[in-house]
Amino acid sequence: MRIFAVNFLVLPLLFFCASCSMFSPKTLVLTERDSGSVIDVKTGDRIAIRLEANPTTGYLWMTSVPNDRVVREVDNRYVPLKESETEPFVSGAPAAKLFTYVVTGPGEAGIKMEYRRPWEGDKAPRKTFGVLLRATGESMFEEEGGRDGTRRVGSKGQVEYR
């Protein structure tokens, strides 16, 4: 009876759970150490970029707009510097800026960021961050000319079907 339970109940359940995780979108968390990387992703994957920042000093992470047919920013906010901290960051204290992107279609897109004061246009940035994303999969955008049943990304990063 015990062998029957393992073969016919537990093994199919394990296979089902493993297959779900193989096909579900993943979230990659990148930090300053990942700058300069080339990263392979699939349509629907999320990229979270976590960079140290202190907005009260006037320095901000300025981003270049990537190709939104490949990747789209869906959120950016300040979070506690350490992921283990549960309280929100305190004004004046170092924090982290968390940028969240969703992969919207196949192709290549670079995400480039500079940590600078916006009014110091000619001055070199204090820090830089950049990655190249190589995406595979089907586009989430509607084709030109109308609704055709394809997926697209909504304003909050959700996948919508047309």
Short structural summary:
The protein contains one helix and ten strands, in the order H-E-E-E-E-E-E-E-E-E-E. The chain is mainly β and 162 residues long.
Q: What would you say this structure looks like, in words?
A:
By secondary structure, this protein is mostly beta strands. The protein has one domain: Immunoglobulin-like, CATH 2.60.40.2020. Helix content is 14%, strand content 41%. The protein has one helix and ten strands; from the N terminus they run αββββββββββ. The strands form three sheets. The chain has a four-stranded mixed sheet with strand order 1-3-6-5, with no helix packed on it. A four-stranded mixed sheet has the order 2-8-7-4, with no helix packed on it. A two-stranded antiparallel ribbon has the order 9-10. A hairpin with a 5-residue loop joins strand 9 (151-153) and strand 10. The longest helix is centred in the first third of the chain and has 22 residues, at 2-23. The model is unreliable at 13-22 (pLDDT under 50).
